[in-house]
Amino acid sequence: MSDLNRGIMKFDGADKPVLVAISTFLVLGAIIGLILWAFKVAYIA
């Protein structure tokens, strides 16, 4: 069993590279979105 198939990812195939890439994209996209929103609110407003 892979380490990625534990914790909240308790389903078969949780360590597939496609799922890991999609979740990485979503997490990084959310972080980038929050940073851009913070710059917009702090400096443009």
Describe this structure in words.
The protein is an all-alpha fold and 45 residues long. The chain has 1 helix and no strands. The longest helix has 28 residues, at 17-44. The chain is elongated.
Secondary-structure blueprint:
Elements: H1 17-44
Alpha plus pi helix count:
1
User: In percent, how much strand structure appears in the residues?
Assistant: under 5%
Shape: elongated
The largest β sheet comes out as:
none
Alpha carbon gap, first and last residue: 50 Å
Beta strands, count: 0
Average pLDDT number: 82
Helix content: 55-70%
- Give the helices and strands as they follow along the chain: H
Radius of gyration: 16 Å
Low-confidence stretches: none
Structural class designation: mainly alpha
Record keyword descriptors for this entry.
45 residues, mainly alpha, elongated
Question: What does this entry show, briefly?
Answer:
By secondary structure, the chain is an all-alpha fold. Helix content is 62%, strand content 0%.
